[in-house]
């Protein structure tokens, strides 16, 4: 018994492979000579085999049951059930019509994950919010903040590219506060009306928009100064519950092409990017416009391409033939995105409800004229004056 | 070269897996290479702040493992659901104080083990029998022997049963078990030895 007791630890270490090589060799030699230890080893192996073999596999927990447990746990834990962020975009009628017709014509690209929706009710007034101060003791998650900063920085660097913009506004010290941890808040009115005229107006300039709870719908919007209004980098966005960064760029290499990119981070952690490329002809008339919108909902951990629309305005030649504007083909991004629209696997699953965060005035109105389309592409629609921003 | 974007698994749909999907518009990938790369640190930070989406992420990350653990400890699906719910309630409430000394996994395991043990003790140490339609691993012993083994395991003290389950059914390492139970590595080995001895003794009684 004493022997067995002494060897028990060593037996287990041998079984776990914890013995050193020399110890292992010695113990194996001992096992050959000692029936007590050999028997104990067999017994241990058999016990472990028994235990492994009767391991039950749990029945499948249905998604509904799992969801119910989660909801109950959240309710019991008194975790605030934040309302889903409502992005009430005052979409210009022109863009809305464009999306409607584009949807109706079929191949508008929709690639969304079910359940990954942002509830939008354009007729519903967003509730007013109170003071913008954070709750005591709550702070911004640094990891998320850093990620957002990195994305914004990268976006701006990419689209603006010149030192005036890259050097002054977006540094890691810039106080972005897109996640303002208040409970039961929805997007403040300031965000909703962020795209009023004369915005965006100056190509090559970075615009920051933040909620202005005090301002209300008709109050002045807060935007950072442009590069010519130093020190833009000192502009604090502290207090914003949602952040919108709009970058406007006139493409020098491709005359007539203007790109606008909007980055938005909402308090529920969702982030979206919208890109609008507008091509104008020599007379400043718009020949094509392309929207691309991406969204990430952290809860679903899924990136969704929400909508991608290309509107081509093609002038008819005198003999009735139609020609694509050269500028469209000369724009790599435009053509790539158009290809993407045509190959969307989910395009026929689109519903109008899916077009919830339509490209709005944020992404619209550079160089938008009063042109009337002369042809509507099969998969596109020509917006009327897309200038919600200019109207 | 075709660019791809990672589409993460939809947690609401069991059986879905993360996949790479070709992206026809590489601009998006160039611009936002990290947009789908929220790692555990990101959502854990937000979960500690009570962000609902992050709490949901936390839940979906560990729900299957915790349910499996609770089921194996309690032997009945309804009890497992109750224990899992209690565990996540406690976790959600305690997350703001989670100091990340241990991993989130061992932390939620610890809570779940305590909840299951508490439920077992309320049942006066009488675990529910394993359900008859339970699926067992391939090559499981014959019915009579399986019943004897199961009966022996049920008669082992709950604390000892917990450590056996963690080791042999959840296949956790000694270090993870030590973290979960809040004891030293040596104590884990000692308790495991005792639990095995006890199980073996009761198994002998059953035969």
Describe it for me?
The complex is a heterodimer of chains A (391) and B (207). Helices cover 30% and strands 16% of the residues of chain A. Chain A contains 10 helices and 9 strands. Chain A has helices at 2-16, 21-33, 35-53, 63-76, 93-104, 142-159, 163-168, 189-192, 326-329, 332-342, and strands at 56-57, 109-111, 206-210, 222-223, 243-250, 257-265, 271-280, 286-297, 302-312. An 8-stranded antiparallel β-sheet of chain A has the order 2-9-8-7-6-5-3-4, sandwiched between helices. In chain A, helix 1 packs across helix 3 (35-53). The model of chain A is unreliable at 79-142, 155-243 and 299-391 (pLDDT under 50). In chain B, helix 4 (77-94) packs across helix 5 (104-122) and helix 5 (104-122) crosses helix 8. The interface between A and B is large, with 77 and 78 residues. Strand 1 (56-57) of chain A pairs antiparallel with strand 3 (135-136) of chain B.
**Spatial arrangement of strands, main beta sheet of chain B:** 1-2
Q: How many alpha or pi helices of chain A? A: 10
Strand order of the largest sheet of chain A: 2-9-8-7-6-5-3-4
Measured by DSSP, the beta-strand proportion of chain B falls in: 5-15%
List the uncertain runs of chain B.
Answer: 1-7, 20-38, 128-137
Q: Which pair of chains has the greatest number of interface residues, and how are they split between the two chains?
A: A-B, 77 and 78 residues
| Major sheet of chain A | 8 strands, antiparallel
Mean pLDDT of chain A: 47
The counted number of beta strands of chain A is: 9
Query: What is the overall pLDDT average of chain B?
Result: 74
Strand content of chain A: 15-25%
